[in-house]
Amino acid sequence: MPSLVSVIIPTYNRAAVVTRAIKSVLAQEYEPLEIIVVDDASADETHQVVDGLRDARIRYIARSENKGAAAARNTGIQAAQGTFIAFLDSDDEYLPGKLGAQVRAFEALSAATGLVFVNYCEIGRNKSARFPPEIKSGYVHVGRHFPASIYCNPPSAWMVRKSCFDSAGLFDEGLWTLEDLDMFARLVRKVPAYFLADILLRKHVYTCQKGKVPDKYAEQTGERILQKWLPEMRRDRRFLFKFYTMMAKDMARAGKTQKACRFLRQAYFLNPLRFDMLGRMVKLIRRK
Protein backbone atom coordinates (compact mmCIF):
# COMPACT_ATOMS: atom_id res chain seq x y z
CA MET A 1 0.00 0.00 0.00
CA PRO A 2 1.39 3.46 -0.88
CA SER A 3 2.69 5.55 2.01
CA LEU A 4 0.55 8.42 3.30
CA VAL A 5 2.01 11.86 2.59
CA SER A 6 1.09 14.75 4.88
CA VAL A 7 1.35 18.17 3.23
CA ILE A 8 1.64 20.98 5.78
CA ILE A 9 0.62 24.47 4.70
CA PRO A 10 1.36 27.19 7.29
CA THR A 11 -0.50 30.41 6.59
CA TYR A 12 -1.03 33.86 8.06
CA ASN A 13 -3.35 36.44 6.52
CA ARG A 14 -3.10 34.95 3.04
CA ALA A 15 -6.72 34.25 2.22
CA ALA A 16 -6.12 35.75 -1.22
CA VAL A 17 -3.58 33.11 -2.27
CA VAL A 18 -3.93 30.06 -0.03
CA THR A 19 -6.54 28.50 -2.35
CA ARG A 20 -3.97 28.36 -5.16
CA ALA A 21 -1.56 26.49 -2.91
CA ILE A 22 -4.16 23.98 -1.72
CA LYS A 23 -5.49 23.33 -5.21
CA SER A 24 -1.97 22.59 -6.44
CA VAL A 25 -1.81 19.80 -3.85
CA LEU A 26 -5.28 18.48 -4.67
CA ALA A 27 -4.20 18.32 -8.33
CA GLN A 28 -1.32 15.95 -7.54
CA GLU A 29 -1.82 12.45 -8.90
CA TYR A 30 -0.28 10.89 -5.80
CA GLU A 31 -2.51 9.20 -3.26
CA PRO A 32 -2.99 8.83 -0.35
CA LEU A 33 -2.39 12.28 1.04
CA GLU A 34 -3.66 14.62 3.73
CA ILE A 35 -3.43 18.40 3.67
CA ILE A 36 -2.96 20.14 7.01
CA VAL A 37 -3.55 23.89 6.84
CA VAL A 38 -2.18 25.55 9.97
CA ASP A 39 -3.63 29.04 10.39
CA ASP A 40 -1.24 31.08 12.54
CA ALA A 41 -3.96 33.31 14.04
CA SER A 42 -4.95 35.09 10.81
CA ALA A 43 -7.21 38.13 11.00
CA ASP A 44 -8.61 37.72 7.47
CA GLU A 45 -10.99 35.21 5.86
CA THR A 46 -8.54 32.31 5.71
CA HIS A 47 -10.82 29.95 7.65
CA GLN A 48 -13.82 30.59 5.41
CA VAL A 49 -11.70 30.23 2.25
CA VAL A 50 -10.26 26.88 3.33
CA ASP A 51 -13.61 25.61 4.57
CA GLY A 52 -15.18 26.51 1.23
CA LEU A 53 -12.97 23.99 -0.60
CA ARG A 54 -14.86 21.12 1.06
CA ASP A 55 -12.45 18.25 0.54
CA ALA A 56 -12.17 15.44 3.08
CA ARG A 57 -8.39 15.38 2.68
CA ILE A 58 -8.08 18.90 4.11
CA ARG A 59 -7.64 19.42 7.84
CA TYR A 60 -7.76 22.96 9.19
CA ILE A 61 -5.96 23.81 12.45
CA ALA A 62 -6.33 27.30 13.93
CA ARG A 63 -3.65 28.58 16.29
CA SER A 64 -4.80 31.07 18.92
CA GLU A 65 -1.63 33.16 18.82
CA ASN A 66 0.63 34.24 15.97
CA LYS A 67 4.00 32.59 16.59
CA GLY A 68 5.51 32.42 13.11
CA ALA A 69 6.12 29.83 10.41
CA ALA A 70 8.35 27.59 12.54
CA ALA A 71 5.67 27.15 15.21
CA ALA A 72 2.96 26.63 12.59
CA ARG A 73 4.99 23.94 10.80
CA ASN A 74 5.68 22.21 14.13
CA THR A 75 1.96 22.15 14.87
CA GLY A 76 1.43 20.48 11.51
CA ILE A 77 4.22 17.94 12.03
CA GLN A 78 2.79 16.92 15.39
CA ALA A 79 -0.68 16.47 13.89
CA ALA A 80 0.52 14.66 10.76
CA GLN A 81 -0.23 10.98 10.31
CA GLY A 82 1.86 10.39 7.19
CA THR A 83 5.10 8.48 6.75
CA PHE A 84 6.40 11.44 4.75
CA ILE A 85 6.01 15.15 5.49
CA ALA A 86 5.92 17.71 2.68
CA PHE A 87 5.64 21.45 3.19
CA LEU A 88 4.07 24.16 1.07
CA ASP A 89 4.13 27.87 1.88
CA SER A 90 0.68 29.31 1.33
CA ASP A 91 1.81 31.59 -1.51
CA ASP A 92 3.68 28.87 -3.42
CA GLU A 93 2.37 26.04 -5.61
CA TYR A 94 3.36 22.52 -6.56
CA LEU A 95 3.79 21.59 -10.19
CA PRO A 96 2.21 18.34 -11.44
CA GLY A 97 3.96 15.17 -10.30
CA LYS A 98 5.91 16.76 -7.44
CA LEU A 99 4.79 14.47 -4.62
CA GLY A 100 4.89 11.31 -6.73
CA ALA A 101 8.44 12.02 -7.88
CA GLN A 102 9.64 12.47 -4.32
CA VAL A 103 7.95 9.32 -3.01
CA ARG A 104 9.39 7.30 -5.90
CA ALA A 105 12.83 8.68 -5.07
CA PHE A 106 12.46 7.59 -1.44
CA GLU A 107 11.41 4.12 -2.58
CA ALA A 108 14.39 3.79 -4.94
CA LEU A 109 17.02 5.18 -2.57
CA SER A 110 18.58 3.87 0.63
CA ALA A 111 16.14 3.44 3.50
CA ALA A 112 18.37 5.79 5.49
CA THR A 113 17.50 8.71 3.19
CA GLY A 114 15.65 11.30 5.21
CA LEU A 115 15.14 14.25 2.87
CA VAL A 116 14.34 14.60 -0.84
CA PHE A 117 14.08 18.14 -2.23
CA VAL A 118 13.37 19.39 -5.74
CA ASN A 119 14.44 22.16 -8.06
CA TYR A 120 12.12 25.17 -8.45
CA CYS A 121 11.59 28.42 -10.27
CA GLU A 122 10.79 31.81 -8.80
CA ILE A 123 7.77 33.72 -10.06
CA GLY A 124 7.89 37.48 -9.64
CA ARG A 125 11.65 37.74 -9.92
CA ASN A 126 12.37 35.50 -12.90
CA LYS A 127 11.29 32.10 -14.15
CA SER A 128 14.68 30.45 -14.36
CA ALA A 129 15.55 27.33 -12.37
CA ARG A 130 16.98 27.99 -8.93
CA PHE A 131 19.65 25.32 -9.39
CA PRO A 132 21.54 25.48 -12.72
CA PRO A 133 21.80 22.47 -15.06
CA GLU A 134 25.32 21.63 -13.87
CA ILE A 135 23.88 20.62 -10.48
CA LYS A 136 22.58 17.13 -11.18
CA SER A 137 20.25 14.90 -9.19
CA GLY A 138 22.12 13.12 -6.41
CA TYR A 139 22.93 12.95 -2.75
CA VAL A 140 24.03 16.16 -1.04
CA HIS A 141 27.75 16.39 -0.29
CA VAL A 142 28.57 19.74 1.30
CA GLY A 143 32.13 19.11 2.46
CA ARG A 144 33.41 22.20 4.24
CA HIS A 145 30.59 24.36 2.89
CA PHE A 146 27.73 25.40 5.11
CA PRO A 147 24.79 23.29 3.79
CA ALA A 148 22.59 26.24 2.82
CA SER A 149 25.38 27.93 0.86
CA ILE A 150 25.10 25.40 -1.96
CA TYR A 151 21.61 24.01 -1.60
CA CYS A 152 19.66 27.01 -0.29
CA ASN A 153 16.03 26.07 -0.89
CA PRO A 154 12.59 26.64 0.65
CA PRO A 155 10.64 24.07 2.70
CA SER A 156 8.07 23.99 -0.14
CA ALA A 157 10.66 21.95 -2.06
CA TRP A 158 11.14 19.36 0.70
CA MET A 159 9.75 15.97 1.54
CA VAL A 160 11.02 14.56 4.84
CA ARG A 161 10.67 11.13 6.37
CA LYS A 162 8.67 11.98 9.50
CA SER A 163 10.83 9.85 11.78
CA CYS A 164 13.82 12.08 10.95
CA PHE A 165 12.41 14.87 13.09
CA ASP A 166 13.04 12.63 16.10
CA SER A 167 16.79 12.90 15.51
CA ALA A 168 17.06 16.34 13.88
CA GLY A 169 14.46 18.04 16.08
CA LEU A 170 11.59 20.28 15.03
CA PHE A 171 11.80 23.81 13.60
CA ASP A 172 13.35 26.33 16.00
CA GLU A 173 10.42 28.46 17.17
CA GLY A 174 12.83 31.14 18.35
CA LEU A 175 13.53 31.96 14.69
CA TRP A 176 10.92 34.09 12.92
CA THR A 177 12.98 34.04 9.73
CA LEU A 178 15.73 31.73 8.47
CA GLU A 179 14.07 28.87 10.34
CA ASP A 180 14.25 26.93 7.08
CA LEU A 181 18.01 27.49 6.78
CA ASP A 182 18.50 26.21 10.33
CA MET A 183 16.23 23.19 9.81
CA PHE A 184 17.83 22.26 6.50
CA ALA A 185 21.33 22.44 8.00
CA ARG A 186 20.28 20.18 10.89
CA LEU A 187 18.60 17.66 8.60
CA VAL A 188 21.59 17.43 6.27
CA ARG A 189 23.89 16.91 9.23
CA LYS A 190 21.70 14.10 10.60
CA VAL A 191 20.38 12.16 7.58
CA PRO A 192 21.28 11.54 3.91
CA ALA A 193 19.59 14.15 1.69
CA TYR A 194 18.88 13.77 -2.02
CA PHE A 195 18.37 16.50 -4.62
CA LEU A 196 15.99 16.01 -7.57
CA ALA A 197 16.96 18.34 -10.42
CA ASP A 198 13.44 18.38 -11.91
CA ILE A 199 11.61 21.72 -11.55
CA LEU A 200 8.51 20.72 -9.59
CA LEU A 201 7.68 23.88 -7.61
CA ARG A 202 6.75 27.48 -8.31
CA LYS A 203 7.94 29.79 -5.56
CA HIS A 204 6.13 33.12 -5.69
CA VAL A 205 8.28 36.04 -4.63
CA TYR A 206 6.68 39.18 -3.19
CA THR A 207 3.21 38.11 -4.28
CA CYS A 208 1.68 38.81 -0.91
CA GLN A 209 3.05 41.30 1.59
CA LYS A 210 0.52 40.23 4.18
CA GLY A 211 2.13 37.73 6.50
CA LYS A 212 5.59 39.23 5.97
CA VAL A 213 7.79 38.91 9.06
CA PRO A 214 8.32 42.31 10.78
CA ASP A 215 11.80 43.87 10.66
CA LYS A 216 11.90 43.86 14.47
CA TYR A 217 12.70 40.14 14.43
CA ALA A 218 15.67 40.46 12.07
CA GLU A 219 18.27 41.17 14.75
CA GLN A 220 17.01 38.43 17.06
CA THR A 221 17.03 35.93 14.20
CA GLY A 222 20.50 36.85 12.94
CA GLU A 223 22.09 36.67 16.37
CA ARG A 224 20.45 33.30 17.07
CA ILE A 225 21.69 31.83 13.78
CA LEU A 226 25.21 33.05 14.50
CA GLN A 227 25.07 31.62 18.01
CA LYS A 228 24.05 28.22 16.66
CA TRP A 229 26.11 27.99 13.49
CA LEU A 230 29.05 30.45 13.54
CA PRO A 231 31.79 27.78 13.95
CA GLU A 232 30.53 25.96 10.84
CA MET A 233 29.81 29.17 8.96
CA ARG A 234 33.40 30.33 9.51
CA ARG A 235 34.59 27.40 7.42
CA ASP A 236 32.55 28.80 4.51
CA ARG A 237 33.77 32.41 4.20
CA ARG A 238 31.72 33.17 1.09
CA PHE A 239 28.47 32.20 2.79
CA LEU A 240 29.37 34.06 5.99
CA PHE A 241 30.15 37.18 3.92
CA LYS A 242 26.69 36.99 2.32
CA PHE A 243 25.09 36.45 5.71
CA TYR A 244 26.79 39.49 7.25
CA THR A 245 25.79 41.72 4.31
CA MET A 246 22.18 40.46 4.54
CA MET A 247 22.12 41.26 8.25
CA ALA A 248 23.55 44.72 7.55
CA LYS A 249 20.68 45.42 5.13
CA ASP A 250 18.12 44.22 7.67
CA MET A 251 19.61 46.38 10.42
CA ALA A 252 19.74 49.43 8.14
CA ARG A 253 16.10 48.92 7.15
CA ALA A 254 15.16 48.69 10.83
CA GLY A 255 16.99 51.97 11.52
CA LYS A 256 19.76 50.33 13.59
CA THR A 257 22.72 52.08 11.99
CA GLN A 258 25.37 51.09 14.52
CA LYS A 259 24.57 47.40 14.21
CA ALA A 260 24.34 47.66 10.43
CA CYS A 261 27.86 49.09 10.38
CA ARG A 262 29.07 46.31 12.65
CA PHE A 263 27.87 43.65 10.22
CA LEU A 264 29.34 45.54 7.25
CA ARG A 265 32.68 45.74 9.07
CA GLN A 266 32.62 41.99 9.70
CA ALA A 267 31.83 41.39 6.03
CA TYR A 268 34.72 43.63 4.98
CA PHE A 269 37.20 41.74 7.19
CA LEU A 270 36.19 38.53 5.39
CA ASN A 271 36.79 40.14 1.98
CA PRO A 272 39.05 43.23 2.23
CA LEU A 273 38.86 43.75 -1.54
CA ARG A 274 35.20 44.68 -1.23
CA PHE A 275 35.76 48.38 -0.66
CA ASP A 276 32.05 48.97 -1.24
CA MET A 277 31.51 47.69 2.32
CA LEU A 278 33.41 50.73 3.61
CA GLY A 279 31.38 52.99 1.32
CA ARG A 280 28.14 51.61 2.71
CA MET A 281 29.33 52.25 6.27
CA VAL A 282 30.15 55.87 5.41
CA LYS A 283 26.69 56.36 3.86
CA LEU A 284 24.98 54.90 6.92
CA ILE A 285 26.96 57.08 9.30
CA ARG A 286 26.21 60.23 7.27
CA ARG A 287 22.53 59.33 7.13
CA LYS A 288 22.48 59.02 10.90
TrEMBL record:
Q: Which InterPro entries match?
A: Glyco_trans_2-like (IPR001173), Nucleotide-diphossugar_trans (IPR029044)
Task: Please give one Pfam family short name.
Answer: Glycos_transf_2
UniProt signal peptide: none
Q: Where is the Glycosyltransferase 2-like domain?
A: 6-165
Q: Give one GO molecular function term.
A: hexosyltransferase activity
Q: Which PANTHER family match?
A: GLYCOSYLTRANSFERASE, UDP-GLCNAC:BETAGAL BETA-1,3-N-ACETYLGLUCOSAMINYLTRANSFERASE-LIKE PROTEIN 1
List the protein's name: Glycosyltransferase 2-like domain-containing protein
Q: Which organism is it from?
A: Velamenicoccus archaeovorus
The beginning of the lineage is: Bacteria, Pseudomonadati, Candidatus Omnitrophota, Candidatus Velamenicoccus
